[in-house]
Structures are given as C-alpha cells and as structure tokens.
Design goal:
Blueprint: H1 17-20, H2 27-31, E1 34-38, H3 42-54, E2 58-63, H4 87-98, E3 103-108, H5 111-114, H6 117-121, E4 125-128, H7 133-146, E5 150-156, E6 159-165, H8 183-194, H9 197-203, H10 212-230, E7 241-246, E8 252-256, E9 274-277, H11 283-294, E10 300-313, E11 318-325, E12 344-351, H12 356-359, E13 373-378, E14 381-387, H13 393-402, H14 406-409, H15 435-438
Parallel strand pairs: 1-2, 1-4, 2-3, 4-5, 9-14
Antiparallel strand pairs: 5-6, 6-7, 7-8, 10-11, 10-12, 10-13, 13-14
The chain binds zinc ion (ZN) (2 copies).
C-alpha cells in the first residue's frame, strides 16, 4: 500500500471517531439530543445501551417494573443481584458505567402518570420498548399533542417490527400508531377498557415469548432511525413505515402504513396556545389564568388522564380518598378496607368553577403527573397550561421523582403493588407485541 493512502487517525481518534467517519454524521447533534426511552425491558435495555454507546447526550428511562430472574436472559444491563430493584434505575446505573459522558435519568413509575406531557414536549425523540397497546396508544397521543417523533418497537418470538411516527402538524403529516391499528386491535383495547379492575389484573398474567437476539435487532433499527431523525434524515428511513423482521426465515420487508383521516389521535396542542405555569399552581390559579387567556368566566379545566379522587363504600357509608390516575388502580385499591365491598369510584377528568373542593389543590395532589398539562377550555377554544414548563427539563424531572406524585407513591406504603398500574411486564395473548397483528 502506498503511503499516500494512509490516514493519520491519531489526531482525530476519539471515543466516537469511527461513527463520525460516516459522511453525514454530526456527533454534536447526538451530544445535544435528549431521548426518552419508555420501557426498560428486553427492548429498553438494548435501546439504552445503543444510545449511550453512541454518545446521545441525555437519556431518560421510564419503567414501572422491578427486575425478575426471567428478565436476565434478555437484558444486557441487568445482573442477578439486581432482582427486585427498579428496572429504570438499574438500567440507568449500568448505562452510566458504559459512558459517563451521558446524562441519565431514571423514572420509576407508569409513564402515563409519572412524568407529564411537558417531558414529551422537551425531548427530541421518544423510543418505545413497550409490550402492550394501551401504553403505545398513550405514548402516541402524547407525542402527537406536543409534536415529538417516536419510534416504536415490538417483538414476539423471533419476529419483530420497528416503525417511526412523526407528527409535523402540516398538510403532509403521515400516519400515527393508532392509524395502524386494525379492527381487532381496537376491539381488544375496548374490551380491556370496559373490564372491571379485577379482570384487568387477571388479563395481565400472560407472558409473551421474547429473545435477546430479536430485541437486539429491533432496538438496533429503532436507534438507527432515531439517529436519522436527529440528523433530519428521517425521510430516508421508516417515517410512517414499518420494518418487519422474521427471524425464522430471515425474510424482512418494509410496510407503508396509510394515514386514517378519521383517526382520533391526531390532536395537536399548538405552541401559541400553550402557557407555562408554576409547578405548584393550584386549580384556582389555573382557572383564573384560563379565564384571562380565553376572555370568559365560562372555563372548564381538563386533565390529561382520568383521576380517581375517592371511593365510596355503600355498605359502610364511608368515603376514602384515592387521588390517583384511574389507570394506576389495581383491584385491591378499589375495595373497602373494612368490609371488602367494591368501592364506587368518583372519577374526575374536568374541573369546573363550581368544584370548590378542588380549587385550592395543586393538580399533583389529586394524581396529575408532576410536569403535566392542564387544558383550559371554552367550547372549542383551548389554552394548554404547562405545569413547570418554564423550568429546565432536569428541574422538572427532579420534581417528578421527589414530589408526592405518582413516582414516589409507587415506593410508598400504598396498598397497591409498586408503581400500581394496569400494564406491568406482560401483556396477555392479546398483546400488541405481536408484530404479525400489528403490521397491517
Ligand atoms: Zn392516527
Ligand atoms: Zn365497606
């Protein structure tokens, strides 16, 4: 070989040198990027591993589960000694060890009530390592509201699919996750929603077969798509499309999803109709601001999730405060501690000026996620009030994990299991983890 062809790598060699040799690569884009990983199981482990190895500057990891021994065959960042610990926390600790340059946050709790919509707003990409349709529907709607792209991954056995959904609020906006759902998916979600808490618990008992190998393949594609999106090279990738992988035959193909115009998940919260408010604002303060912004006294406040504020036992004639999102409740949370009767739940999704009992409270006190959005509305006119929106993401995350919100309630002396939620590790046989079902 001639000397002319020899590159002097010594001057440019560094941790990220090899990937930086890709012509369009800009490591500074990765360094400045903030990525939220939802789910810290088989996919989540691989997602986080890839992100930190590649030098993505800030990685948030959300999961409500604790580690079991059956996770060890598929999760590169878990060790046998971690059994019983929070998946999100262990992933973050291990990832820190892989690359101390990356800023990492663990969010232990249900993504639907732990972090709030403002966190979705302030990350560049969301990566899904989820195992059920309900959580995907939530992530999809959250991303659409605030305009953040997300890349979903699903695995079952030796099959998997990765797909990217990008809300752009323009006329050429593509399909969302919900657009890809078929009749059967909708039926399953509806059936689960209409079930009592008790039977919902039972439905969670099933387990889906997954392997470390398929997880590595699908998560690898997901992170690769995230890198393209960060470089604004998404269109060459999987926006509105799915990469389906069959590990049995090694057939793989890309499917293009159709946008369903009648899909209910395309709501956008316009930035010009959003207003940052203090993290500890009371409903009265939110109502007052909403009235001012909308120019009328006839204002209703709307929370992102349905809240169970109390439960009434008809036989004991007693009321018991609950103050948690409905989706977090498990069967034991909804029975009378004295007589065992099922409680009649008082559910709240909207707060009106006449609801005196709530006006003095902070949203977090009745179960709203710490950095969530409360929407003030008058007819079709809306103003989105972003709790703690002016704080840095770090400050909001610190509040989310330190506050009396869902995150810490998960570790508290609550009667429910840790993180009390409807969607733990395993979906039933009806789960969206089945790529064959999901790819339509
Ligand atoms: Zn849609
Ligand atoms: Zn009772």
């Amino acid at each position: 070989m001639s000397d002319k062809l020899t590159l002097d790598v010594a001057a440019t060699d560094g941790r990220y040198h090899r990937q930086s040799l890709i012509t369009w690569w800009d490591q500074s884009l990765l360094r400045d990027a903030r990525v939220l990983v939802v789910g810290a199981g088989a996919l989540g482990n691989e997602l986080v591993k890839n992100l930190v190895l590649m030098g993505v500057g800030t990685v948030l990891v959300a999961d409500l589960d604790v580690i079991e021994d059956s996770n060890l065959s598929r999760c590169v960042l878990f060790r046998p000694r971690d059994e019983g610990r929070s998946k999100a926390e262990v992933v973050v600790e291990a990832a820190r060890d892989l690359n101390e340059e990356v800023e990492l946050f663990a969010l232990h709790g249900d993504v639907r009530s732990t972090i709030g919509l403002s966190v979705f707003r302030d990350v560049d990409v969301v990566l899904g390592g989820l195992d059920n349709r309900e959580a995907r529907l939530f992530v999809n709607q959250a991303c659409w509201k605030v305009g953040t792209p997300w890349v979903d991954g699903a695995i079952e056995g030796l099959q998997g699919v990765a797909r990217a959904f990008v809300p752009n609020q323009g006329p050429d906006e593509g399909p969302c996750y919900e657009c890809t759902m078929g009749e059967r998916d909708h039926q399953i979600v509806a059936a689960r929603r209409s079930c009592s808490l008790l039977s919902r618990d039972e439905m969670e008992a099933g387990k889906v077969p997954t392997t470390a190998t398929t997880a590595a393949i699908v998560a690898g594609i997901q992170v690769q798509e995230a890198i393209k999106l960060l470089h604004e090279r998404g269109p060459m990738g999987l926006i509105g499309r799915g990469y389906a992988y069959n590990g049995v035959t090694h057939d793989s193909y890309v499917v293009t999803y159709a946008r369903q115009e009648e899909c209910m998940a395309h709501d956008h919260y316009e930035a010009e109709h959003s207003r940052d408010v203090p993290l500890d604002a009371t409903f009265l303060q939110l109502l007052t601001l909403g009235r001012e912004l909308l120019g009328t006294d006839d204002v209703t406040l709307q929370t992102e999730t349905e809240l169970a504020v109390s439960g009434r036992c008809e036989s004991c004639e007693t009321d018991r405060p609950i103050n948690r999102p409905l989706h977090e409740l498990k069967a034991p949370d909804a029975v009378c501690a004295v007589c065992g009767e099922e409680l009649g739940l008082r559910l709240v999704h909207t707060i009106r000026p006449e609801h005196d009992e709530f006006l003095g409270l902070r949203p977090a006190e009745i179960g709203v996620a710490p950095a969530d959005v409360v929407t003030a509305r008058h007819g079709l006119e809306r103003r989105h009030l972003v709790l703690g929106g002016a704080l840095s993401l770090t400050e909001r995350l610190t509040a989310a994990t330190a506050d009396g919100g869902a995150a810490s309630a998960a570790d508290g002396a609550d009667p429910g299991p840790t993180g009390a939620t409807l969607v733990p590790d395993a979906p039933g046989p009806q789960a969206a983890a089945n790529p064959a079902e999901d790819v339509s």
